[in-house]
Amino acid sequence: MKESILYNPLFGIILSLTSYEIGKKIYTKWRYPVFNPLMIAITLTIFVLLKFNISYEAYSRGGDIIMFFLGPATVVLGVSLYKNSRRLKEYFLPILAGVTAGSFTAIVSVIILGKAFGLKKELIISMIPKSITTPIGIELSKSLGGNPSITVIGIMITGMTGAISSPFICKFFKIKNKVSRGIGIGTASHAVGTSKAIEMGEVEGAMSGLAIGMAGLVTIFLVPILTKFLI
Known about the structure:
By secondary structure, the protein is mainly α. The chain is built from 13 helices and no strands. It is globular, with a radius of gyration of 18 Å.
């Protein structure tokens, strides 16, 4: 009976959604960036799996279904982008330059730091797509010969770090331009960071959503070139 419940896809889905709802409640009550709903959801999910000795295989039957909807969910961000298409046309070149610079920095920093700490080539390659959205990052990691599981972990950590730190970074460096804040957050921390950008404002959310797609394309273009010369 227990096995049939645990291996039912609904188990993974319900556990994930319940953990995330708890995270939202906590964040809504205290509003501290460190109480990021996704980070709380991941922590609670891991705690339940370890506490009750539930295998990842059982959980992933439902978790993979949620993962499937990541792509379509990312596309929905295009609605707010359409509403702000005027700003896209007005700032196209600065946006392209910002996304390219951010993507370049994300790739090169992983390679340089990875080599500095003596990491294996496979691990470095797996971490290179850390700043792009999960569906694109997984496929890029596979094509490079990396480990997609490590890639997903890197993407999650990057996203949560961006969502937590972005308000402080914008305030510290006095970044007040809404387009600049949105592009910076989306390029550095993809969809998770975009959730914070949406809280900051509609323009920030729209620009961050745009940066997700552009950063993915730019990264795919830059990675073969940079890895050939730096790895």
